[in-house]
Design a protein that fits this description.
The protein has about 900 residues and is of the alpha+beta class. The protein is built from 19 helices and 50 strands.
Length: about 900
Amino acid sequence: MKRSVWIGLGAVLLVIGGWLGYRSFYPAKRTVWSLMPSGPLLVLASNRLQDTVSAQALRTQVALQQLPVFDEARQRLDRFLYATTDSVTAIRFAKGKNIRYSLHSISRTTLDFIFYIPTTDDDQAFINRLTNPDPRKYRILRHTFAGERLFDLVSRSNEPVGSFILTDGFLVGSSSGILIENVAKRMHESLRLPRSEPKFQVDADHWAGLSMRPEVLQSLFGNASSLVRLFLPEELNLQIRASASPSHLIGYASDEIGGRQDVASLFTGQTPRRIQSGDLIPQTTATLYYIGVSDAPRFGRSLSKLLRSASSDFLRDRFDQIEPATEALYQSLGSDIMLCRMESPSGARQQVMVLNATTIKALSSAYQQAAYLAGAKSPAPLKTFLGHKTLLLDVPELPASLFSSLFTGFQRSWITQHGNSLIVANGEEAMQEYLLQLQRKAVWSTDQRQADLIKNTLRPANFTAFVRLNRVNADQSQTLLTSTWPLAWQNLLDGPEGADRGSALANLENMAYQASYGNEKILSTLVLGRTTRRASKAVLNRLLLQKKTAFEAALIAAPVVAGSLSEGLAPFYAQNDAGQFVLVTPDGDKIVQKNIDGPVRSNTLAVDFLDNGNLQYLFMTDRTLYIADPRQKSVRLNTIKLPAGIDPTYLTRPRGSLQRNWVALVAHQDGQVYALDRQRKAFIQIMKAPRKGPLLLPFQVIATRTGMEVLAAQQDGTLNRWRENGQSLPHFPTRIERSSEDESEIRFAGPAFQPIGQSTIRTITEEGQLLTLNANGLIAQKTQLYRPVRSGSFRLFPDEAQTNWLLLRTSDTEMTILDQNGQRRFDVRALQPGRNNVRYHRLGAGIELISVKSGSFTVLYDLNGRIIGDRPIPSDFPIALQFDERTNELYILSGAKQAVQLFSIRLR
């Protein structure tokens, strides 16, 4: 035994010695892979990345140079090449060369590139110029490392530009000297395991090659990144080429299945498919996961095996509970299983699962049966919204229990049927928002570019993961992409250097990964591009008049919008001082309806009051609530008399209420809350404050697992919180008392607000004290805000939809917007005393604006104080705003003097 071991060791040493001797006489030919340090995060190869692209082409198509990472690699090489020569010479040197770029980690927060440029004898003049730069601008420092001569290019002020090595056939450079030293060490590693080099094809049809680790790609998919990785191959080697649409580029790959056999087995016998349900994907979808099914029973059997062996104890135990209902459910599935995560201005996680069905009744029944087996209580009363009957199934994570952890995020299920599909939402508000978009046809199939994306650009696949990179995340501070990447990636793509020139992230909107699974290979497709139109600089930020409708008499209230202004199909209603209520059709026809008993005082609320599957529009005058029911070329006005003492300025939705007939809430001057019951067609008192006095508007409606709650402050320092049955929560109402005799009486100067996802309550006093209250109404923190010498008043300032808040400090002629910590954001001065109105608008897609009406004009500001539009907007009343993310246009409806005007501003 010992002898055989020695013989084996001798054989190994003999092989090693022979290898070293062979290499000493016949050195290996240099390749990029032999120069590259181990562990690159990704490798790029392209012969056109340094080419110039015209501005005209960049507006109409996505170029390779506009993609993140590609752009960063190009910028670093450009900076190096242009340092010692003019741009024409540098471009001539790089043109046509198949240049490789590898990305490496230098530290926990820093990534950098190495570039490998093949050279020939014809490039000697450029290399001489590089090694002997203009001494008035640059100098070369030479030193030896690991037996190789390294060159460091520095400016006359000793700022490093880059380091490089000259080898036989390659110029290897980087802005990081550490990485070039790693290249030198790599060149002298005699004993190393051979690495397979991806065979990138770079030609007229194949613009670039991209090899990456799966964890690089998975980080783009937000909270579900670890789950998405299960569908990725263990290595991705993509060939990038143009797609059928000039707005997207596509990468194709065919990689070994390796350790992904479990997932591949899930799709055995399943023909890859295109997404069929473009009419069920809402326009505000930020993330989409899609599974295509061609043989539902077979898919169900494979999925059952996967769930029985799930790594999660919860999923295994839950599947054992619901297994009797799963066979019928899987057999009734249709072609599409989708999860749509919608953008939410509040930061709340709004997501909807769509299940196509062969038999919708069987699928709905099986889903409900699974819920009851999992412990759901007896069915809650059915509620109706836009003609859809919705049912609450109060059981957590049922979609994940049936379709894997990719479908997590459903603490409860609201279900309904739409056509031949079962719709499952994770909240009532998510369900209502989803159905609202379906009714307005704000879906992918009606958007020409999104329809082209799913019909032509995206390929048939078993699995598709889609993300819109420029969608805001929960804390509204960063894009979805950068907020989920490690700090090193954020620094690479969105750091100061990228900010100065405009980050490449702004040029990319859509990213999709698609996979189809065979017996031995995973066929992958990576789609990169944008569907939103780029704004032309000729009209960027200009206020453009789209339409003007003149009236014979002056207006007495702001126009009421019904529908989408961007599509040109929205009628609106206007009132004039002759007492006429006029419907203006999309064709411009002015149809006088019956008179109403005074100017409109409230906001407008769109609800399905008549329970007929259509939206009606609610608004109030001083004495009456009106329900405007749009008809063809007319509108029917139903009326309900307001109880005495009702505040006619504010209407809000009963979010989370279990009462199916409550459609709106209003406040009473004695501290009461009334609900509008559509069955009784009357207002009923549902809550009452013990201390008489008006509620500070807007009061907040909070959806909870047990129903609706209302949070409302009164000026005398009283904070109320009710359940929807009218009972106060424990410790409420609470009255905030002054902490010392020296302190003045506590009086609230604005509403109380509980941010979504938090348990603390925020409010502010007349003295400018910002209060943070805990769930029991006790003061947890108190901050005195800066009070200027001139008298001014403070106010907690929620946005129009109560999804976020700022702080507002006003005087008779000045206004200051403060952030949530009381720090100044910007000032507006020279306002007209007594004629001001300030509103906070969150319009989706990250668009947040402040509208300041002063006198007869309104000015729009972003949250940094920059003015939106090139001139003020004529307006005698507060304006209505809508944003169309498909065209990047902001639409403004304004009433001024004897006309209603529709304006637009194209944003970047």
